[in-house]
Amino acid sequence: MKTPALLPAALLLVSLIAAASSDLTPFTVLVANSVTPTPHKNYSTAVVFRGILLGGLRRLQNSTKDFMFTYTEDPNYGPFLQSVNGLPGSQKNRTYWELLVKKTDGQIIRPDVGIGCYLPNKYETIILNYNKY
């Protein structure tokens, strides 16, 4: 006779999961170029609760004509940012897209994960910085 009691508990759990996943985490994406001085571009986007950065970048690309990016999928390390707004990284020119995060307290960090694993926090700024190595 435990089945009827389990049904309301299961419905409650499903509604809590649905409510949590519908919450959005807003953040800013700043595109910078440390190689050739150009004006920075700022964009606003969001991920679902506990969503990955890659999802937020896809949401931004689908909603904004001014922002585009490409990435490759490495079998060992996951998604690797290839280009932003038509500007690709290049082994020949020793350039790449650096992922930085400006926390809400102003501290800038280099996350130890990439776009496929990083979970943006509310109101932080994701910095996609074109740089040399």
Structure notes:
It is a single chain. This protein is of the alpha+beta class. It is built from 2 helices and 8 strands, in the order H-E-E-H-E-E-E-E-E-E. The strands form 2 sheets. The protein has a 5-stranded mixed β-sheet. Strands 3-4-5 form a 3-stranded antiparallel β-sheet, covered by helices on one side. A hairpin with a 2-residue loop joins strand 4 and strand 5. The protein is globular, with a radius of gyration of 19 Å. The termini are far apart.
> What is the first-to-last residue Cα distance?
66 Å
Compressed to H and E, one letter per element, the order equals HEEHEEEEEE
Strand content: 35-45%
Instruction: Tell me the overall shape.
Output: globular
Strand count, sense and closure of the main sheet? 5 strands, mixed
Q: Helix count, per DSSP? A: 2
Q: Give the number of DSSP strands.
A: 8
Relevant terms:
single chain, 133 residues, alpha+beta, 5-stranded mixed beta sheet, 3-stranded antiparallel beta sheet, 2 helices, 8 strands
SSE blueprint:
Layout: H1 3-22, E1 24-33, E2 41-48, H2 53-63, E3 69-74, E4 78-84, E5 87-88, E6 95-102, E7 108-109, E8 125-132
Parallel strand pairs: 1-8
Antiparallel strand pairs: 1-2, 3-4, 4-5, 6-7, 6-8
Explain briefly what this protein structure is.
This protein is of the alpha+beta class and 133 residues long. It has helices at 3-22, 53-63, and strands spanning 24-33, 41-48, 69-74, 78-84, 87-88, 95-102, 108-109, 125-132. It is globular and about 45 Å long.
